[in-house]
Design a protein that fits this description.
Blueprint lengths: L1 H13 L7 E5 L11 E7 L17 E7 L2 E7 L10 H14 L3 E10 L9 E10 L26 H13 L4 E9 L7 H9 L4 E3 L3 H9 L3 E11 L10 H25 L1
Parallel strand pairs: 1-4, 1-5, 5-9, 6-7, 7-8
Antiparallel strand pairs: 2-3, 3-4, 5-8, 6-9
Length: about 270
C-alpha cells in the first residue's frame, strides 16, 4: 500500500492538490456543498492512480480541491461502499490519501434511516458514536502498524469539541439537530422489520451503509472527525412501507442547505 499511496499522492500533488487542511466526504444526495467551494482542481476518480471508481448512479465520482470558508479543502464528491463489491481497504483508501495530502480534520456526511422515531425525515443527526455491523475492520490487514497503532482506541471516535461547535452553530442558525448512534450495515438491501427492531434494541438511532469504515481509519491516522447523518426515511417496523429511492434523494435535498451551513460555519472555526 505504501507504493500505491505514494503514486496516488504524487499524482494529485502534481495536479495542484497542495496542503489541504480539511477533508470532506459527501454522501448520497448531498453533493451541493461543492457549489460553495472555490474550485481550483478536480479529477475524476477513474483518472487517479489506484483509486476505486464510484458505481452508484447518484455519486459523482470526483475529487475536488479548492477553498471553502477560508480553508483549503479536498472534497470527495461521491464515496465508495462495501455493497459495490469493494473491500474495506478500497473504501477507506481515499481517507489515507487525504491524510497524506495534509488534512487534519475529516467531515463526513451520509443519508441514513431514522431508527429513533422521535427523529423526522429531513432532519440532521450528529453522529456521537457508532456500531460497526459491516462484518470486518479496515485495519485488519498485514502491516497495518506501518500506518499507525494497530489497536486504535475508539472510546470517542467523533471529536467532542467539533460536536459542541456544530451544536452551537445549529442553535445560532435555528437548525433542529439531533445527536445519536449510527449503525453501519453492508447493504445494499434495506432492513427487514425484525432487523429494525434489532437495531433499536442494540442502541442505534440511525442506520446506513457507509461512514464507519472511513471513521475507523481516520482515528487510526489521528484525524479529528465530525459526521452528520441526513435522515431520509423513518424506520418504523410496525408501519413499514416499501422504500422509494427517489423520496430518499428528495429528503436529502431538503436537509442539504442546513448541512451546508453547518459544515461551512464549522470550517471557519477550524
Amino acid at each position: 500500500m505504501i507504493k500505491y499511496l505514494t503514486d496516488t499522492v504524487d499524482y494529485l500533488k502534481n495536479k495542484g492538490f497542495e496542503n489541504p487542511e480539511v477533508g470532506i466526504i459527501l454522501g448520497t444526495g448531498l453533493g451541493q456543498l461543492i457549489n460553495e467551494v472555490e474550485i481550483e482542481q478536480e479529477v475524476s476518480y477513474n483518472h487517479i492512480p489506484n483509486f476505486p471508481t464510484a458505481t452508484v448512479e447518484f455519486h459523482k465520482g470526483k475529487l475536488v480541491y479548492g477553498s471553502l470558508a477560508g480553508k483549503k479543502v479536498v472534497v470527495m464528491q461521491g464515496r465508495f461502499h462495501v455493497y459495490e463489491g469493494y473491500s474495506l481497504l478500497d473504501v477507506t483508501y481515499p481517507v489515507r490519501v487525504m491524510e497524506q495530502l495534509g488534512i487534519k480534520s475529516l467531515l463526513v456526511s451520509n443519508a441514513a434511516g431514522a431508527i429513533d422515531l422521535n427523529f423526522n425525515k429531513g432532519e440532521i443527526m450528529i453522529i456521537d458514536d457508532h456500531i460497526n455491523l459491516q462484518g470486518g475492520s479496515p485495519l485488519a490487514f498485514h502491516g497495518v502498524e506501518k500506518y499507525g497503532e494497530r489497536f486504535v482506541d475508539m472510546s470517542a471516535p467523533y471529536d467532542q469539541d467539533l460536536i459542541k461547535k456544530v451544536e452551537k452553530i445549529a442553535t445560532d442558525n435555528s437548525i433542529d439537530i439531533h445527536k445519536g448512534v449510527y449503525a453501519s450495515v453492508v447493504g445494499p438491501q434495506l432492513e427487514t422489520r425484525a432487523e429494525y427492531r434489532y437495531l433499536k434494541t442494540i442502541g442505534a438511532d440511525a442506520v446506513g451503509m457507509s461512514t464507519v469504515p472511513e471513521v475507523i481509519v481516520a482515528n487510526h491516522l489521528k484525524l479529528k472527525v465530525l459526521a452528520l447523518s441526513v435522515l431520509t426515511d423513518e424506520c418504523d417496523p410496525d408501519n413499514l412501507k416499501p422504500i422509494d429511492i427517489n423520496e430518499i434523494i428528495a429528503m436529502a435535498a431538503k436537509a442539504e442547505p442546513h448541512m451546508i451551513t453547518l459544515f461551512k460555519e464549522l470550517i471557519k472555526q477550524l
